[in-house]
Amino acid sequence: MPENFINCINNFANNKKVRKTLLKLRAPIGLLLFVLVLTQLHRAWFWPGLAVSILGEALQVWCMSTIKTHKKLTVTGPYMVVRNPMYIGRFFLIFGILMMTGSLLSLAVFTIAYYFYMVNRVRREEKLLAEMFGEDYAEYCRDVHPYLPGFKRFDAAQIVSFNKESMAQNHVVVNFLVTVICYLVLFIFTYIQPV
Q1: What is the DSSP string of the chain?
Q2: Residues 6 or more apart in contact with residue 84 via CB below 8 angstroms
Q3: CA gap 38, 23 in Å, rounded
Q4: DSSP-based three-state secondary structure for 141
Q5: Number of alpha carbons in the 13 Å side-chain half-sphere of residue 32
Q6: What pLDDT, on a 0 to 100 scale, did the predictor assign at position 70?
């Protein structure tokens, strides 16, 4: 029974029509969820949540500043420690914002939903990367875990890896500014509400 349920979730997460619809609706859905979070903020959880979220945003910015989309297999910066650091960063960015609500249920639901999103998305991406980069990618996969940090390929000279072209291509500045604006809105809504 649980296996059938998990298969249904995975099939839903990999359904092209569902993915296409969610991609089109991601901005309004995100805005709606953000407004919902604004109505549930708790002062006691604001600063711990902000710290976790900033950690996630920093990792995401580092990833977007390192990755060279479709040109070359990226194995420097955070990608030398873990194969999917951007998804990990995004998880903590959103998890931290949800922490600000103080709702364990929200955190649990998000964690479960994000797990299925991430695992299925990574499977699809890794299939494409294997086709694009062949043995180089297979070797990288043998050395670097998809989610847990490891140091088999660690090289201190390549850990700090920021590429101006990648930053521009991946809209790092826009992403960062939108995130900072969201943090400011969260701060204002947290501290203008009665205790």
Answers
A1: -HHHHHHHHHHHHH-HHHHHHHHHHHHHHHHHHHHHHHTT--HHHHHHHHHHHHHHHHHHHHHHHH--TTTS---SGGGGT-S-HHHHHHHHHHHHHHHTTT-HHHHHHHHHHHHHHHHHHHHHHHHHHHHHHHHHHHHHHHHS-SSS---TT--HHHHS---HHHHHHTTHHHHHHHHHHHHHHHHHHHHHS--
A2: 118, 122, 146, 147
A3: 23
A4: helix
A5: 5
A6: 66
Does the reported pTM lie above 0.85?
Answer: yes
Q: For the chain, what are the domain ranges? A: 2-192
Closest CA to 172 of 53, 52, 63: 63
Confirm if 77 and 159 have CB atoms less than 8 A apart. yes
How much is the pLDDT for 75?
A: 87
CA angle 144, 145, 150 (to 5 degrees): 70
**Angle made by CA atoms 130, 89, 138, in degrees to the nearest 5:** 15
- Is the predicted pLDDT of residue 72 greater than 80, yes or no? yes
Average pLDDT for the chain:
90
Higher pLDDT, residue 102 or 193: 102
